[in-house]
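Appendix B. One record, verbatim.
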Amino acid sequence: LEAMLIKPVQRICKYPLFFSQMSAYIKTASRASTLLRSANDLVCAVAEFVNSTLATSSSRRRMHTLLEQLAPPFMKLFAPHRTMKLELHCAFAELRLPRSTADTSSPPGFLACCGECELLLFTDCVLLLKSSVEYNDGPMPLVEPQRYLRP
């Protein structure tokens, strides 16, 4: 009996199994069966809430760590309403586009550079980061942060 009591939160995982085993011994049309289903639904809701809270907390810690490694203006992206949904390491290619119609140094569409980048997907924005030869301390943003972040 003591092992089934709620001590730490991880014990909640045992209750759905307990309730399903108990309901096997009770008539389905009885009040006890209804109460067991209700209790099971409540315990499952609590377990889902705990799991989502832990996932959100972990995501926010990772987001803070990544933004802290970038230039200070990027810390403005750290906000209570924003969480990181995806962190992806991928290849990128930049195409050379003419600055004007008179620019004939190279035809448009030719590969300017390629490499690897990090894509960070947040709940309400996307951040692309690429490594640069002249920036040895870590990833360098593809865009100027001041242009897109307002105080």
